[in-house]
Amino acid sequence: MSNQGTPPHGGGTMVEPDGPDDRTPARLGDSHDGSDGQGRRGTVVIPDRFENPGLPAHVHRLADHDPAAGRRAERQVATMFGLSMLATLVFIVAYFAIDYTTDVFIPGVGGVNLLHVVLGVSLAVSLLGIGAGVVHWAKTIMPDTEIVEERHLQRSSDDNRAKAGNMILAGGDAAQLGRRPILKYSLGGALGLFALPFVLQVAGSLGNPTKSSELAETLWDITPRADGSPGQPIRLVRDPELTPVKASDVTIGSVFHIMPETLKDSTHVLEDKAKAAVLLMRLDPAQFSADEKGRKALSWGYQGIVAYSKICTHVGCAVGLYEQQTHHLLCPCHQSTFDVTRDCEVIFGPAKRPLPQLKITVDGSGYLVATQGFTEPVGPSFWERNEYVN
Predict the structure, then answer these.
(1) For residue 139, which phi and psi values (nearest 5 degrees)?
(2) Contact between residue 350 and residue 334 where contact means Cβ atoms under 8 Å apart
(3) How far is the C-alpha of 98 from the C-alpha of 117, rounded, in Å?
(4) Residue 326: how many other CB atoms lie within 10 Å
(5) Which residue range forms the structural domain that includes residue 121?
(6) What would the pLDDT profile of 55-111 be if each residue is shown by its tens digit?
(7) Are residues 172 and 34 in the same domain?
(8) Label partner for 27 (CA 20 to 30 A): which of 54, 152, 213, 297?
């Protein structure tokens, strides 16, 4: 039978061993019933309630009792916000003033694009100024008194909910926004200007609205000679090898991803490549439709070899799937389907226009060439599109 004694420090229950064995101290792993987890029982003191360790004494900051220190901290925070605003203005000016082709050498880094460096550093400084200012504001001016709240039910009483709302409203006063308007205005200015770089990049990526002709121009466009005669035809080359394609290389049922030979001279490779992508296929001439669309598709090709823009007229995805048996081109994004035998007419999906055809033939060496550019803009529609349809 176990005897219970008084624990040496009170406030708990002491369990003594059944026999005359010596008492054993509690060890890590001892269970609350006095056993050590292996059947041996010892003395374990279990307090009825753990004492509240409390919080360390609150240390007042210099700005809490020195108005001069508070004003100094206020100026420091405003300076950080001002630095953020200055860096944002540098970003905006650099976006328009620095040529995107300018490269510079930075020791330890090497050759880099100057525009990218200035935009990245200025945006980083802008964000750093806001973050450092907010942290310094919280550390030196905002109240830092530790508050402990006992746990309660998830749904507070109406009085407590009303008090919480009042506390939120009082937070603005506690942050001294009313007393220190320079903080309010400098923070608002920093945050407001910081949003401009993102808006600027989105707006800038849309292109120049006064130069809509860029949407209708591709590397397939052939510039006439000075005397007005047609310019030099452009060879079709494989993508990505950029090797020319002979008509004899294209067998019935085969598909080639094609780029213009002039891509090697482009200064905007990604943009020009996106607009100039072409799919090249060969069908049996007898497989083309006997109507006007089929005859036009056949006449713009060479012995059943036809070339069409690879850019879907719906939202600009790459039409990269060709069904040899049905002679259909399929856009994998939204399943727009185009019938090659009828001049890539839309037969299914959300696209509203057929894929533009590239008129091709062969040169004296048997290589496939384009004799003219697209007669309509490739890809999705835009407001001025009809102005560039020949």
Answers:
(1) -75, -30
(2) yes
(3) 11
(4) 13
(5) 67-145+157-205
(6) 777 788 888 888 899 899 999 999 999 999 999 999 999 999 999 889 999 998 888
(7) no
(8) 54
